[in-house]
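In response to reviewer comment 3 from the previous cycle, which asked for concrete evidence that the modeling workflow produces usable outputs, we include below a single protein chain processed end to end. The sequence was submitted unchanged, and the resulting structure tokens are shown without manual editing.
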Amino acid sequence: MKNQTYAALFQLVLLIILGVFILWLTYFVILKKIKKKYQIEGSPHLSFSIIICAHLFSTGYITSGIYKAYTFTLQFLHKNSNSNLFDFYSTAFGYLVEFILIGLIISFIVNFISVKLFSLLTVQVDEMEEINNNKVQYALLLATILIVISIFAKEPFMNLLDTLVPYPKLNFID
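The workflow returned the following structure tokens.
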């Protein structure tokens, strides 16, 4: 029982640290891209801040799907572990890094496609230019698109991760 408690506390601390790192990395990348593309000096205005927050939520929501697949991975690695503790933790860490990288890539792709596709469908308005002009209504519209699409994308992302979980091989009788 104590081992499970310690494992759960370790997972909690690890996921908090990784969550903050993932959101910081997302913030850094999105802010740098926006500042470069729209020549912003200093802090971005409210409309860009709304878009950045939507990107953060979307990335955080999609990558939160890592937890279930990673928990299954840890369980199967632990049950099938015939080696020392170092091998177990190094393999577990490798899966964690892999899941995080896939989550970040998927969330960036989902966000990019969402914005581009919506912009292509609304040719009468250049949403990003309106956001650059600090028109908050367009920022709220795009933020809603990013959030809703991330809700749609989380389950397929989790299904993708499930294909990477090292489930034990089953022997079938012919």
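The helical segments are 2-37, 46-63, 66-79, 85-121, 127-132, 136-162. We consider this sufficient to address the reviewer's concern, and the full set will be provided in the supplementary archive.
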